[in-house]
Amino acid sequence: MLAVALTGALVLLAALTLFQVALIFGAPLGRFAWGGAHRVLPVRLRVGSIVSVVLYAGFAALLLSRAGVIAGGELPVVVVLCWVLFAYFVIGILLNAISRSPAERWTMTPVCVMLAGMTLIVALS
Prior knowledge:
It comes from Microbacterium sufflavum. By secondary structure, this protein is an all-alpha fold. It has one domain (2-124). Helix content is 74%, strand content 0%. α1 runs antiparallel to α2 (43-66), α1 packs antiparallel against α4 (102-124) and α3 runs antiparallel to α4 (102-124).
């Protein structure tokens, strides 16, 4: 179960990373992100997408650590951060569910649900 959850979370984070990179380079997919107000993101939101990519890498490293793939998974800071990440995805569910953008609401809410569930499994490991 842990391996499936970890793999699923990593695949989703990789897909989100590719999505954010596409937004950074001007792909007309803005309706799926950042409230959906822009078809092509303005510079300030592209910077936000850069920050997202960095965060996704950190999330992946955290989950890999907690799952025992890389060192440190039993450290208290890793355990706590994994629960913080779970809470972050739960908040993401709520925020995406109330998005004004139907495209964002119908795509990113389920993504956050899956990430929250898989992160919970990893956090419990």
